[in-house]
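Hi support team,

I'm filing this because I wasn't sure whether my run with adenosine-5'-triphosphate finished correctly. The job status page said complete, but I'd like someone to confirm that the output block is well-formed before I use it downstream. Pasting the exact inputs I used:
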Amino acid sequence: MSTEKAFHICVLPGDGIGVEVTTAAAAVLEATQTYSGGFALTLEHHVAGAGAYRETGIAMSDEAWRAAEDADAIFLGAMGLPDIRFDDGTEIAPQLDLRFKFNLYAGVRPVSAKRGGARMLSDPRAENIDFVLVRESTEGLFASRGKGEVLGDREARDTMVITRQTSERLFAFAFDQARRRKASSHSNKVTLVDKSNVFVSMAFFRKVFDEVAGTNPDIDAERVYIDACALDFIRRPWDFDVVVTENMFGDILSDLAAGLVGGMGFAPSADIGDERAVFQPAHGSAPDIVGSGRANPTAAILSAAMMLDWLGHRHGVSQCLDAAKLIDKAVEEVFFDGQVRTYDMGGTSSTADLTDAVIEKIKGSQGK
Ligand code: ATP
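And here is everything the job wrote out:
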C-alpha cells in the first residue's frame, strides 16, 4: 500500500441544508486527514441544484460536470427545492442525472442503530439493527424519468426498465457487500425485494438474482415481496444483512429504514458505479429547517466516511480505510457520551455543536 496519496474531490453542496451539512462534513474530513496522515484531499466546490437553476437557468454547469467527471470522488449535499420546478412539474435533481450519466447503479444505504438516532421501536432487539440497503439507481421505474407521457389529459404512463447487465452487476455488488460484512454481521445473507408475483419485469429481476446467487454459494440468498418487506422492516429489521432492490422500491424503503434509526439526519448514502461514485446524505434540502442550525450533519459526516472507505479500497490506501473507521467511531462515541443531542433527537445541539464534538473525538483519538 502507498504511504501518501492525493485525492481530488468535487464538492457539490447544492441547496438548503445541503450547504450546511457539507460544511460540517468538509470540516470533519479536514480534521481526519490532519490527524490520520497518509493521504491528502483537495476539495473543489461547485454550484449546482435548484438555486443554480433559479439564478442561471442551468442546474449544473458544464464546468461542474467536467469537475465531477475528472474527480476521484464526488461529495454532494442535497439538491432540489419544492417551489423550483421544471415545466412538467418535476423537481430539479442533478443528483439523479449524476447517477444516470456516470452509471452509478448501486445506491448503498447503511442502516445502523449504533449511530445515536432515537429508535422508533421499543423492542430491545432494535439495538441490533444493522443492515445495508442496496438500491438499484439507474433504471427500474426511474428509467422513465423525463420520458413519461400524459395522453390527452386522460391517462399517464411511466415504464419500468430492468436490464440483465445492470441487474447482474447490482447483485454481484450486493453479494460482495455481504462478504465484506461477514466478520461483523450476525447473519450472512442477501435479501432480494421485488414484486415478482405481479410484474414480468420483477420476475426477470428475480431470475437474474437467482443466477447470481447460484455463483455465490457462500452467502445465503432470500427473496421477499416488497409489501411483506415493508412489514418486516418494522417487525424484525434486526434480521436483515444486505437488502437489494429496484430503484423505486429502494427509494421508499430507504426512508422507512432511516426512520427506524432516528430519521433522515442519520442516513448516509453512496451511489457507486464501476468507475465513479457520489457520496451524499440520503436526505433532501429540508427547506423547513434551513438556516436554523437544526440540520443534523451525521448523515453527511458518515457519507464522507463512506467516501474515504471507497477511495481506500479502490486505490489500496490503508490510511483512508483507517480514517473512515476513525470518523465512524468518533460519531458513535459522541452519541454514546450523550452530551450532544441534535434537534431531530429532541435535543438542542446545533449542526456546529455536533461537528465540533466529532472533530474533538478525532483529535482525542490520536495517540490512544
Ligand atoms: P427529497 O425528496 O429531496 O429526498 P424529502 O421530501 O425526503 O426530500 P427531506 O428534505 O429529506 O425531504 O426532509 C424530510 C424531513 O426530514 C423534513 O421534515 C426535514 O426537516 C427532516 N430532515 C431531513 N434531513 C434532516 C437533517 N439532516 N437533520 C434534521 N432533519 C432533517
